[in-house]
Design goal:
Organism: Salininema proteolyticum
Family: Belongs to the class-III pyridoxal-phosphate-dependent aminotransferase family. HemL subfamily.
Subunit structure: Homodimer.
CATH superfamily of the largest domain: Type I PLP-dependent aspartate aminotransferase-like (Major domain)
Order of helices and strands: HEEEHHEHEEEEHEHEHEEEHHHEEHHEEH
Main location: cytoplasm
CATH class of the largest domain: Alpha Beta
Number of helices: 13
Pathway: Porphyrin-containing compound metabolism; protoporphyrin-IX biosynthesis; 5-aminolevulinate from L-glutamyl-tRNA(Glu): step 2/2
Largest sheet: 8 strands, mixed
Helix content: 25-40%
CATH architecture of the largest domain: 3-Layer(aba) Sandwich
Number of strands: 17
Radius of gyration: 21 Å
Number of domains: 2
Strand content: 15-25%
Length: 427
């Protein structure tokens, strides 16, 4: 039995000075119950908590730690950058290097650096609205684009429903122009355009949704979205904050007008970007009228970490990541099948999810129908076995290039025990 005494003390201390004891809600274990473990340090594929427990990490800081934790070359790059100054409030050549690296890998002609995925998507939408002179945006239920007011809207009834705020503090006016439709339903998007002719500025979609669990786009779905937006004078924003540089050198690279990036491109430090066609991006100040700014945008430490990470992501690394994801997904699925636990493995790339459901999952309603109690039992058993999974049934699992054969052997035993525990939980 692992000891969690220090984590429990940390949780008590944190709750007195931080809302809920965490600085991002999913960390609070609300989706699985129990007390979160507090991490002291990490190396390679493993986390070490404040009690000294070691965990094989399948979260990877929600994606950025694609090379593993504390990669020596990334650490050295950050140390070198920090020794020269941590922020300047002025341009640096490193920003150019990172921008060139990103544009060389993606469909973007120009990008702008920001500090978070929320900033990136919020800014991309502002560009779309400014460029089209329209206000409304279509988003998909279950797709997460950060916590800007306009994106915190959930689906209502009907084919295309004006979104209601999903959080107190978000005024109805902030989401009145947000239209929420079911994911993978191209007819619902077409209906939204018909019902709001000449009013929709953009459709925003995750290239591969990852915040209702990992859900694959239907065959041709992203292309159909692009064709539909073009036919209706709107823009398509492809959110690759999660998939960018994770599923391949440039991400998914589905056709779009604007793109957003984050996570991997910061190498574990706060960095993100949005970009796209030159004619759209040059509507931003100071060359155009659309205002956007950020005091710490292009921070030299984040730029150094991100640039070093991207340059280390060779074809061999992606081949290893793909192989690991496939092997681990199949290993978990086999253990659950052997234990008689209904589940669906969704793996459109090297990020993946297991839904505790008898049916294939293609949208948010289907994802919500899973047995989250079984996931919680699976999660906590794995935690006791030294495996760190996302503390929510609605998140992706992430592998890192630092994982070893020993790690895979550890997982095989742990999955078997966790699956048997999940089998004891019924609806």
């Amino acid at each position: 039995m692992r000891k969690h005494t220090e984590s429990e003390l940390c949780a008590e201390r944190a709750a007195t000075v931080i809302p809920g004891g965490v600085n991002s809600p999913v960390r609070a274990f609300g989706g699985v119950g129990g007390t979160p473990v507090f991490i002291k340090e990490a190396r390679g594929s493993r986390l070490i908590d404040v009690d000294g427990n070691s965990y094989l990490d399948l979260v990877g800081s929600w994606g950025p730690m694609i090379l593993g934790h504390a990669h020596p070359e990334v650490v050295a790059a950050v140390q070198e950058a920090a020794a020269k100054g941590t922020s300047f409030g002025a341009p640096t050549s490193g920003e150019i290097d990172l921008a060139e690296e990103i544009t060389s890998r993606t469909n973007c002609e120009e990008i702008r650096l920001v500090s978070s995925g929320t900033e990136a998507t919020m800014s991309a939408l502002r560009v779309a609205r400014g460029a089209t002179g329209r206000d409304k945006v279509v988003k998909f239920a279950g797709c997460y684009h950060g916590h800007a007011d306009a994106f915190l809207a959930a689906a209502g009834s009907g084919v295309a429903t004006l979104g209601a705020p999903d959080s107190p503090g978000v005024p109805a006016s902030a989401t009145a122009d947000t239209i929420v439709v079911p994911y993978n339903d191209i007819d619902a998007v077409a209906a939204a355009f018909e019902q709001n002719e000449g009013q929709i500025a953009a459709v925003i979609t995750e290239a591969v949704p990852g915040n209702m669990g990992c859900v694959a786009p239907a065959d041709g779905f992203n292309q159909k979205l692009y064709d539909l937006t073009r036919a209706n004078g709107a823009l398509l924003i492809s959110d690759e904050v999660m998939t960018g540089f994770r599923v391949g050198p440039g991400g998914v690279k589905a056709p779009a007008d604007l793109y957003t990036y984050g996570k991997v491109m910061g190498g574990g430090l706060p960095a993100a970007a949005f970009g796209g066609r030159r004619d759209l991006m040059e509507q931003l100040a100071p060359v155009g009228p659309i205002y956007q700014a950020g005091t710490l945008s292009g921070n030299p430490l984040a730029v150094a970490a991100g640039l070093t990470t991207l340059r280390l992501l060779t074809d061999d690394v992606y081949e290893k990541l793909d192989g690991l994801a496939e092997q681990i997904g199949k290993m978990a699925s086999s253990a659950l099948s052997e234990a008689g636990v209904a589940h669906y493995l969704s793996a459109p790339g090297n990020l993946f999810s297991i839904f505790f459901s008898e049916n294939r999952v293609t949208n948010f309603n289907e994802a919500k129908a899973q047995n989250t109690g079984q996931y919680a039992a699976f999660f906590h058993t794995l935690l006791e076995e030294g495996v760190h999974l996302p503390p929510s049934a609605f998140e992706c699992w992430f592998v890192s290039a630092a994982m070893t054969g020993e790690d895979l052997s550890h997982l095989e035993t742990a999955f078997s025990r966790a699956a048997r525990k999940a089998a004891t939980v019924r609806l």
